[in-house]
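Sequence design from tokenized structure. All designs in this work follow the same two-part layout: the structure record, then the generated sequence. An example of the structure record is given first.
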């Protein structure tokens, strides 16, 4: 079982989420720990899988993907595992979650316009055999809070 993160680990993770490109020296200074401590803790966080990698946060509108939607999907119950890979293959899928309750999946999909979103929903999603129904909610704004 993984041990809990202490205050130093949490601060390092918080700083890396803020800017994953900063040097370990800068990280140590901002976390108010020695450089050796920062290196050691950083290596441990990676080894434990707390930090799984690094990525760029991209503005979808700058990529021509100005329309965002939340797709709520119901599927045939025993087939949710196989449906997951089919949903991940849909164009524009940015995020997918398996849910509990009325819907089985929630997806965030980015598209350039309504026509492209329509094609994803009506021509791609609805042709997946195990999909029973879906609901599309247009996102007027979305904000990333953490991680």
């Amino acid at each position: 079982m993984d041990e809990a993160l202490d205050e130093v680990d949490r601060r390092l993770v918080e700083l890396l989420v803020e800017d994953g490109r900063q040097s370990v020296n800068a990280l140590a200074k901002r976390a108010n720990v020695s450089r050796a401590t920062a290196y050691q803790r950083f290596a441990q966080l990676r080894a434990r899988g707390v930090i799984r990698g690094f990525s760029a946060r991209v503005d979808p509108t700058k990529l021509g993907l100005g329309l965002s939607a939340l797709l709520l999907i119901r599927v045939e119950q025993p087939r949710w595992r196989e449906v997951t890979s089919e949903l991940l293959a849909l164009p524009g899928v940015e995020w997918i979650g398996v849910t509990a309750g009325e819907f089985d999946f929630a997806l965030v999909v980015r598209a350039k316009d309504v026509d492209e979103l329509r094609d994803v929903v009506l021509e791609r999603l609805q042709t997946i055999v195990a999909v029973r129904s879906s609901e599309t909610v247009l996102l007027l704004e979305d904000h990333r809070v953490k991680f």
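DSSP finds five helices and four strands in the chain. We note this feature because it recurs in several other targets discussed in the main text.
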